[in-house]
């Protein structure tokens, strides 16, 4: 993904030995060092196979986390602006959070005509007569859908009073670990974990 966004390989040199040595002698360049217009969030997502995105201060209220949903909507807007043709999907830990994310996408698209057009096109995108566009699903119904990038909304976190409840929906139930495995195996290249 670095090469797609930066227009050049992550590591380069005058000889094959220079290229092989570069990852061992220098930290990998960030996308922002090559593309200053890139947001920190998108840079974080694309430089690692698994990235963590903190939405600290966003409370968990009524089985939803609006701050996480708004962050994810902005991240989707950034991805669509770059026109990479990478496929991506969003998975929420609960049906309520899935609905919150869908609402956040709708709200952001209602105030941004360019994003609205890109979002509509992405949600209907097909390749070789197969749907490969953006999906928003929950833990219960994500099986079978692979994308280049999966954005995972944990949703659960401290409430407005700062206390954290230890109920994590279907993950707490028998076979919950299998559901987590399904989510992580849906990502071909990148997994972005968003959590407060």
Main sheet: strand order: 1-7-6-2-5
Q: Total strand count, please?
A: 7
Structural class: alpha/beta
Fraction of helical residues? 40-55%
Order of helices and strands: HHHHEHEHHEEEEHE
The biggest beta sheet reads: 5 strands, parallel
Shape: globular
Mean pLDDT: 87
Structure description:
Helix 8 (176-184) links the parallel strand 6 (147-153) and strand 7 (187-195). This protein has 8 helices and 7 strands. The model has no long low-confidence stretch (mean pLDDT 87). It has helices at residues 2-6, 16-25, 31-34, 40-47, 66-81, 95-110, 113-123, 176-184; strands at 50-54, 88-92, 126-127, 130-131, 135-138, 147-153, 187-195.
Write the layout of secondary structure elements.
Elements: H1 2-6, H2 16-25, H3 31-34, H4 40-47, E1 50-54, H5 66-81, E2 88-92, H6 95-110, H7 113-123, E3 126-127, E4 130-131, E5 135-138, E6 147-153, H8 176-184, E7 187-195
Parallel strand pairs: 1-7, 2-5, 2-6, 6-7
Antiparallel strand pairs: 3-4
Helix pairs in contact: 5-6, 5-7, 6-7
């Amino acid at each position: 993904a670095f090469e797609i966004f930066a227009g050049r390989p992550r590591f380069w040199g005058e000889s094959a030995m220079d290229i092989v040595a570069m990852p061992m002698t220098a930290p990998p360049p960030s996308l922002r060092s090559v593309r200053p217009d890139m947001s920190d969030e998108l840079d974080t997502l694309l430089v690692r196979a698994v990235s963590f995105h903190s939405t600290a201060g966003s409370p968990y209220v009524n089985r939803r986390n609006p701050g996480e949903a708004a962050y994810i909507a902005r991240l989707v807007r950034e991805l669509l602006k770059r026109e990479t043709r990478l496929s991506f999907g969003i998975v929420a830990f609960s049906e309520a959070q899935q609905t919150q994310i869908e609402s956040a996408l709708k709200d952001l698209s209602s105030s941004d005509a360019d994003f609205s057009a890109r979002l509509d096109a992405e949600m209907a995108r097909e390749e070789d007569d197969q749907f490969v566009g953006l999906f928003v699903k929950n833990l219960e119904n994500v099986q079978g859908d692979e994308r280049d990038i999966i954005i995972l909304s944990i949703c659960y976190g401290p409430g407005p009073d700062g206390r954290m409840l230890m109920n994590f929906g279907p993950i707490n139930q028998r076979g919950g670990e299998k559901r987590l495995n399904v989510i992580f195996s849906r990502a071909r290249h990148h997994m972005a974990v968003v959590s407060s």
